[in-house]
Amino acid sequence: MLVLPADISDGAGAKQMLEPIHSMWRRFKKLWVDGGYKAGFQRWVEQTCGWTVEVTRRPGSPPCEGPTDVPQPDSPKGFQVIPWRWIVERTFGWMGRYRRLSKDYEALPCSSEAWIWISMTRLLLRRLDG
């Protein structure tokens, strides 16, 4: 895990995180990302790491590539579960239960990272205890 300042794009931050560790994840085959990741990141992952990248999208949303003059179907209204995205959102919900992580209290990214490690370690230990 890596905590970075807010002025770094998702793709640039993901590259910084994956660069030193991708060789340790030999069995890893697929990476799911949301629509905020550009095609350049997808190519970088496929070339550098050898993984398949799948962009998760809302049902009915147009793909990034392809002709833009083709009319797109109307997207459904209301709440939509985005495939695989719920896992990330659920984890953020778990972390939000900890007062220290509910707001950005920390002055340094390394402090935020430490509190995330502490909260997730506590969560896993409580599950092991049953």
What descriptors fit this protein?
about 130 residues, mainly alpha, two-stranded parallel sheet, about 5% strand
Task: Please render the helix and strand layout as text.
Elements: H1 10-18, E1 30-33, H2 39-48, E2 52-55, H3 85-96, H4 99-102, H5 109-129
Parallel strand pairs: 1-2
What is the overall silhouette? Answer: globular
Overall number of domains? 2
User: Number of DSSP helices?
Assistant: 5
User: What's the count of strands?
Assistant: 2
Please list the strands of the largest sheet in the order they lie side by side.
1-2
**Could you give the distance between the termini?**
26 Å
**Which ranges are low-confidence, i.e. pLDDT below 50, for 5 or more consecutive residues?**
none
Mind summarizing the main beta sheet? Answer: 2 strands, parallel
- Secondary-structure content class: mainly alpha
Write the H/E string, N to C. Answer: HEHEHHH
Q: Which percent bin holds the helix content?
A: 40-55%
Determine the strand fraction and express it as a percent band.
5-15%
How many whole angstroms does the radius of gyration measure? 18 Å
Mean pLDDT: 81
